[in-house]
## 1
Amino acid sequence: MGDKVSTSVRSVKRRGRVVVDEERCKACELCLVFCPEGALEYSPTRNSFGYHPVRMKEDNSCTGCAICAQVCPDVALEVYRE
């Protein structure tokens, strides 16, 4: 009968990079809660206001979805897709 055509779907995971304006971040935790990949964590250092700003985790699990930047009330995050 007819030829079967098999299609393979490659799963390509996008990579993103989050740049944090550490002086604007007040550690409100919204980006940590809403990040679907859990790609953010608190920095061990403090900013000039005494807050621990967020930073990307070392595992680079960010997909560049930019949800963190959308929920940030202080516009402290910029997301770049790579």
## 2
Amino acid sequence: MEAALERIMLAYDLLANRTPAETAAARAQVTDYVMTLFEAGEHNADRLALCGLTYLRERDGRSDPVSAGYTGL
């Protein structure tokens, strides 16, 4: 699980510049989320990393693909 958290935070930090306080808050939130998934039975580090990064991006709200013009086509 720790490896998945490191991958999540590395990728999340690459998406935009954040203050150390914002990064620490994001890490705390995603740790709780990933722990919930892990306790529910998800042990695949790749899936945990993907779910965690998706969670942070949705929580952040800055990267909405629809408002950015992505149509999926």
## 3
Amino acid sequence: MAFHWPPIEGRGETATFTSSAARASGRVEFVEWCTFWLFVAGLAWVPFWYGSNGLLAWGINAVLFPGLAALYEIALVLQGRRHPIGIRNIAVPSTLFAMVVLWTAFQTFTWVPSSLINPIWGMAGKALGHPLAGSISVNRDLTTLALMRLITAASVFWLAIQLCRHGPRANLLTSSVAAIGCLYAAYGLAVLKTGQLPWLDIPANGAGRVSSTFVNYNSFATYAGIGLVAIGSRILRLYRDESIAGAGWQLRLASIIEATGRQGGALLGGGFVILLALLLSGSRGGLIATGLGLGVLGVLVHRHDRYRGRQANGAILFGLMLVVATVCAFGGIAFGHFDASGISDPNRLSVYLLTVRSIRDAPVLGYGYGTFVDVFPLYRDRSLGVGGIWGEAHNTYLEVFQGLGIVFGTMLIATVALFALRCVRGAIRRQENAMVPAVAASAACLAGAHALVDFSLQMQAVALTLIAILGAGVAQSDSSRLALED
């Protein structure tokens, strides 16, 4: 009597199931990587058109990034997969941000109680001879545009945090930001000799000052600083990993030379290009903020390696020497601007005081997010000259408080701060991919410091790049062994 093993048929079914699972996994990976590269291409686009400072760029970005996020969500549903990071893992900052979005929308409503409507609508109605539909916002169109930019930024963060839960993609994102920053820095340097592209009508910012495709050199300096932090992390990681623990200085020097010949040359060249463009921008705030960001990066790398029993002092010292050498050789324009203009600006101090006065008049309701350009003329006095239009307060925090009110303005700032603090924790505690949250925390510190004296964060090229890095940092702040799915 013939005897057949029952598992034989089962083995065939198992093999078929394994093959189907492999094909399904391959399709998932294909979709993930396609979405990722489209995302990176979008980040490469945002600085191109005046740093995404204008209606055309805002409209394209509002279609591109939320649309890409929607396609990603559809792909998850069709494939029956979970989000790599569930919303419950970022519940507190997400709730704060959602409340800010709802409040911004509420500021544009015309059916709110009359006690909430800004008095300027009644005065405008009397001047025109007929009543106007009022709202909390003094300019509903500007507030709607600001809301659109908030949603665009949220879609960038959501894509980054989901796509970059995968460690190699997170590292690739920071490398991509560094490469993109290097390209725009190189273009900015080339502009000094060749002139701007014909379709970029950017006025000259002064002899020898680099602004690349941005409308002003201060915003470019912040963008270049973020790129420098990203490429600096790659350099630190390379030379730290190549360093031989316990070896003499001769062997360590030999390992540095070998690493430079293999991979370090390209990284050092890219870092030099970005740093040179940053110096030639002549931005006082940008240079100081970038120095702060690089300092935070060095501290986080040192703390992490000491926590893990590793040595990164040599790599940090080597990077510091390169930065100091470049600054000494090419920092003449930056230091010359410091000597000519000083560190402080009396006009900006006057603007800050006038903005604070406007905040005191509407501390809870605000004037409508993004309406500074319409509100400030109501408070402008003789402390400022009669020339020029102040479209920004040159302090993003004051503009946020003026537009949203102190309560909701604090919520918006706290949202970013909580994510940055989570990246700090991840940079110190994580064993693998700790460099990604370190870059995110350093870039957030850089941009946050510059926002005290300028409006670079109100440029979408800067804001969206920062948010993408922050999303990757948050995604890598927790161990890969933890299940964070929905």
